[in-house]
Amino acid sequence: MPNIYFIHYELRPAPHSEDFATTGGAFALCYVQAADETSARIAAERYFEETDWIVVDLESGPEQVERALYEDEPDMLDAYDEAVDHGECFLFHLWPPETGGGVLH
């Protein structure tokens, strides 16, 4: 069974991103197949760079996880299985830009 790492990030869209006007930020739940924690983090952050996201904070991880951990969580189990099959899975939870005098992004 491959090594799957879970990493949780807070992100914001890059100014040139097509998401910039409609998205204030996101939490990303990442499942990455990698040899070790460092490789998992590098792979996740490379994906964000390629898809025009900027890391605001590393919320948690990388942490090696096992499939059994998600047996009672169908969505997370699907994400884990996708990482096994395809090498990675990223789940984004987006929120809109702030308005009303707050700083945009």
Written overview of the protein:
The chain is α+β, with helices and mostly antiparallel strands. The chain has one domain (4-95). The protein is 26% helix and 38% strand. It has 2 helices and 4 strands. The chain has helices spanning 37-50, 74-86, and strands at 4-13, 25-33, 53-65, 88-95. It has a 4-stranded antiparallel β-sheet. The mean pLDDT is 94.
Average of the residue pLDDT scores: 94
Flag low-confidence runs: none
Return Rg in Å.
15 Å
Helix content: 25-40%
Strand order, sheet with most strands:
3-1-2-4
Indicate the structural class: alpha+beta
Overall 3D shape: globular
- Note the beta-strand portion: 35-45%
How far apart the termini lie comes to 40 Å
For the sheet with most strands, the description reads:
4 strands, antiparallel
Overall number of structural domains: 1
* Number of strand segments: 4
Q: How many separate helices? A: 2
- The ordered string of helix (H) and strand (E) elements is EEHEHE
